[in-house]
């Protein structure tokens, strides 16, 4: 099957070539399908010098839909003969709370695409009410074999908590809640940062909260990030989005538990005993302390997560995709 | 007690401004005050015993100035959904908000589930106070009437992002129920949206209500609806379920709206639970006793939202 992924991932020299990178992000779909990738906005602006009819060379085009790519998805469907799968690549409220004009186009796309892939089982009911096309849970394939064999061997964990949402300028969804939880738990944390200014934010909040020592991690390459994650003891990601949740899966892959809400599908499936409401500081603190204190609880939680990991692997994801197509 | 409210945004009868009304206090727009539009300095607030800052990101710095430059007691009232403060407020202002939370005399939140979070951010008293409901006005405007078979929708599909909180989810439910939904129209283009969507969702029936006369007109006309529906993912106070209870009609909504949790515990569904919402609406329509019991329970809880009860919670929090 000739496969193409259209997303908002930054422009790259590899656009238009067969992708081989094994990383936990949307491009993994192109990798496991031996397909190519194009940035949708760049394509629409003519950056690649290709017309929309070009997509007729593919059997399947997956459009990783965000607000910006709704019309691109419609054009691919209208101007090419490829089958189009709309993959909702974002939290559900991104789609249900768009300006009215965009919502109209979104519903048009849902009804013109050949199938709709979502990232959480909770999304299925909502989207099924808006389209007659098949709707199913897809998620993002995870390069488990690479992580386990090449990147993250078992290591002795440091007693630190890696925080799943950064405090960055662009990636600061609910960062304050996670910092507050860290302060209550009292264990050192690791926070991902992108620019020096991100560190300043934590320093400012620290004037008023007893935030434990924070190690700021700058790892733009995913491989570096996951290797860094591997040395932590526990993951924490308090966030209100209804979405796939890459972080809980990263945690399970590096053999550590994650405390997060069940609005992340990965969390719900991998760590059902560690699900808390996104603002339930007391619940998160209680679970973190139990994991620190009780080795058998930690082990039970990890044994269960391990039993679920096959669901997220490349091959299982591919089967879900193929089953969804009419 | 001399009371002053500092807020941002438009005033209507069922809003934060009702605090100034029930406490016979003054009200200022905090942004305009800071710009000097009233010609007053911050030490002017010495005149008051209590200043309530209805906090949105625009008023964080004003709140700090009121506390630092006047002798008044200050209560911060978090006047928005939690994600407004934890995500949509710029980081430098979040840091200042934590500062503000730690220098004021008390912090009022809109939902009991937000209490642990704010207790971890401040050592000042934190509690639910809520918005006093204008019972008297609602009583005069909304006598018992014969209800029409239509659903009042708590969100709408507007032209701007801010008007669209989860509107699409509510439309998905409506399309499956098949009963008309009523939506306040703020812009004629909203009718075009629905027309376009109906091409794909033929079961969707919407009655638009042109409402430019404010809350009084809205509540008087909403009185004719059979029930309310608001599937929303935000943790917020929830004015809509309270209005439904005042109109003697049940409301289907998530417990993330505090009023819903309190008034209609039997009609709470997760914001994504379309099947659950459809089933509850169908049960309310088909089972008269269930409808009446639900409304009776909500009415029995409404005293909690009276001005006197709200005042008592506020005074307890600051004492």
Strand order of the largest sheet of chain B: 2-1-3-4-5-6
Structural domain count of chain A: 2
Sheet bearing the most strands of chain B, described? 6 strands, parallel
CATH topology of the largest domain in chain B: Rossmann fold
Order of helices and strands of chain A: EHEHEHEHHEHEHEHEHEHEHEHHHH
| Outline type of chain B | globular
The CATH homologous superfamily of the largest domain in chain B corresponds to Glycogen Phosphorylase B
Report the average pLDDT across residues of chain A. 95
Q: Largest interface, by Cβ-Cβ below 8 angstroms: which chains and how many residues each?
A: A-B, 51 and 52 residues
**Helix segment count of chain A?**
15
Q: From N to C, what is the helix and strand string of chain B?
A: EHEHEHEHHEHEHEHEHEHEHEHHHH
Report the total helices of chain B. 15
Mean pLDDT of chain B: 92
Strand content of chain A: 5-15%
Secondary-structure blueprint of this entry?
The complex is a heterodimer of chains A (326) and B (319).
Chain A: E1 3-7, H1 28-32, E2 36-39, H2 40-44, E3 60-65, H3 70-79, E4 83-88, H4 92-96, H5 100-112, E5 115-118, H6 121-128, E6 135-137, H7 144-151, E7 161-163, H8 175-185, E8 189-192, H9 196-206, E9 214-217, H10 222-229, E10 234-236, H11 246-253, E11 258-259, H12 265-270, H13 281-293, H14 295-308, H15 314-324
Parallel strand pairs in A: 1-2, 1-3, 3-4, 4-5, 5-6, 7-8, 7-10, 8-9, 10-11
Helix pairs in contact in A: 3-5, 8-13
Chain B: E1 3-7, H1 18-22, E2 26-29, H2 30-34, E3 50-55, H3 60-69, E4 73-78, H4 82-86, H5 91-103, E5 106-109, H6 115-121, E6 126-128, H7 135-141, E7 151-153, H8 167-177, E8 181-185, H9 189-198, E9 206-210, H10 215-222, E10 227-229, H11 239-246, E11 251-252, H12 258-263, H13 274-286, H14 288-301, H15 307-318
Parallel strand pairs in B: 1-2, 1-3, 3-4, 4-5, 5-6, 7-8, 7-10, 8-9, 10-11
Helix pairs in contact in B: 3-5, 8-13
């Amino acid at each position: 099957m000739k496969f193409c992924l259209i997303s908002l991932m930054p422009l790259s020299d590899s656009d238009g070539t067969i992708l081989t990178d094994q990383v936990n992000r949307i491009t993994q779909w192109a990798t496991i399908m031996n397909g190519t990738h194009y940035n949708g906005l760049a394509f629409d602006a003519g950056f690649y010098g290709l017309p929309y009819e070009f997509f007729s060379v593919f059997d399947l085009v997956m459009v990783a839909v965000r607000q910006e790519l709704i019309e691109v998805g419609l054009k691919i469907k209208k101007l090419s003969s490829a089958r189009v799968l709309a993959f909702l690549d974002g939290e559900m409220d991104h789609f249900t709370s768009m300006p009215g004009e965009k919502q109209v186009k979104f519903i048009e796309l849902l009804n013109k695409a050949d199938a709709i892939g979502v990232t959480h089982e909770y999304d299925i009911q909502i989207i099924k009410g808006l389209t007659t096309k098949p709707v199913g849970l897809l998620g993002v394939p995870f390069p488990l074999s690479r992580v386990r064999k090449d990147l993250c061997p078992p290591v002795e964990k440091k007693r630190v908590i890696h925080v799943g949402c950064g405090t960055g300028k662009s990636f600061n969804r609910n960062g304050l809640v996670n910092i507050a939880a860290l302060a209550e738990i009292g264990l050192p944390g690791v926070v991902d940062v992108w620019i020096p200014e991100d560190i300043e934010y934590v320093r400012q909040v620290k004037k008023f909260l007893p935030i434990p020592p924070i190690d700021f991690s700058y790892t733009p390459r995913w491989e570096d990030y996951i290797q860094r994650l591997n040395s932590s003891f526990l993951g924490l990601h308090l966030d209100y989005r209804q979405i796939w949740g890459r972080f809980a899966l990263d945690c399970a892959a590096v053999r550590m538990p994650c405390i997060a809400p069940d609005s992340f599908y990965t969390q719900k499936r991998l760590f059902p005993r560690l699900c808390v409401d996104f603002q339930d500081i007391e619940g998160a603190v209680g679970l973190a302390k139990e994991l620190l204190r009780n080795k058998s609880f930690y082990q039970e939680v990890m044994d269960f997560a391990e039993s679920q990991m096959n669901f997220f692997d490349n091959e299982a994801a591919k089967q879900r995709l193929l089953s969804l197509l009419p | 007690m001399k009371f002053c409210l500092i807020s941002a945004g438009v005033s209507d009868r069922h809003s934060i401004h009702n605090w100034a009304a029930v406490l016979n206090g003054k009200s200022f727009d905090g942004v305009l005050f800071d710009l000097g539009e009233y010609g007053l300095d911050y030490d002017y607030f010495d005149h008051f015993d209590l200043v309530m800052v209805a906090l949105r990101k625009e008023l964080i710095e004003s709140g700090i100035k009121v506390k630092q430059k006047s002798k008044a007691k200050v209560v911060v009232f978090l006047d928005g959904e939690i994600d407004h403060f934890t995500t949509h407020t710029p980081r430098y202002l979040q840091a200042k908000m934590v500062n503000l939370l730690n220098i004021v005399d008390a912090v009022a939140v809109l939902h009991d589930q937000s209490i642990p979070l704010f207790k971890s951010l401040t050592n000042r008293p934190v509690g639910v106070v809520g918005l006093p409901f204008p019972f008297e006005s609602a009583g005069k405007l909304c006598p018992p009437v014969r209800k029409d078979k239509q659903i009042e929708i708590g969100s709408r599909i507007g032209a701007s992002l801010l008007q669209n909180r989860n509107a699409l989810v509510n439309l998905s439910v409506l399309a499956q129920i098949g009963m008309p939904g009523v939506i306040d129209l703020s812009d004629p283009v909203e009718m075009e949206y629905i027309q376009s969507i109906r091409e794909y969702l033929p079961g969707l029936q919407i009655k638009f209500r042109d409402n430019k006369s404010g809350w009084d007109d809205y509540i008087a006309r909403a009185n004719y609806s059979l029930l309310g529906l608001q599937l929303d993912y935000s943790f917020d106070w929830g004015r809509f379920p309270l209005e439904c209870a005042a109109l003697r009609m049940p409301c289907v909504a998530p417990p993330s709206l505090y009023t819903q949790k309190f008034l209609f515990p039997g009609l709470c569904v997760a914001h994504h639970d379309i099947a659950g919402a459809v089933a509850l609406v169908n049960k309310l329509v088909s089972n008269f006793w269930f409808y009446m019991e639900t409304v009776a329970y909500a009415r029995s809880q409404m005293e909690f939202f009276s001005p006197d009860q709200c005042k008592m919670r506020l005074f307890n929090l600051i004492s």
